[in-house]
Amino acid sequence: MKDEEPFTLDDPARLKALTHPMRRLMLRHLSLHGPATSTTLGELLGAKTGTTSYHLRQLEKYGFVEEVPERSAGRERWWRRVEGTRDLRLPAPDRLAPEDRPALAAFHRVRFEEDRELFERLPEAYLRDPGWIRMSRSTVRLTGEEFEEFYEAYMALLKRYARRAEDAPAGARPLHVRLFTVPADGG
Description:
The protein is mostly helical.
């Protein structure tokens, strides 16, 4: 799975599937803790098993979770996140039909809110666990071609170290890693 080509989330139904709050929580849990059942997720998230089962099926429909056949037995189905090592990318707004752009905007709002919450926790997390916190800020001057090269090198580095929870070596911790770039000249 690590060698897959980048996958662009240009289907508005897929974007909508990823903006649902319950599904975001479920995906976060599966990313951080590995496989779980709908019952386990329901207990953790304060939801009924039928609700979590429905949302898991929706996530499966769009390719974000998959059943873990070797752990599933009878009616107990175990689920894991698929894209833990997949290179998911978002389309430029002009690559979507005008009626589909609100789904992309909603997806961005949800993700930016999650990132804002992480950023706000950073000072406290640094005081509590400084050995696992790294920060970097920089201003660089790149051509469009260099910027694309930089981004692809960054994505390759992420893919090199990306693992699902169940595949990680002993002592590995889940880390939130974020990269964003914004033109410094307002352009």
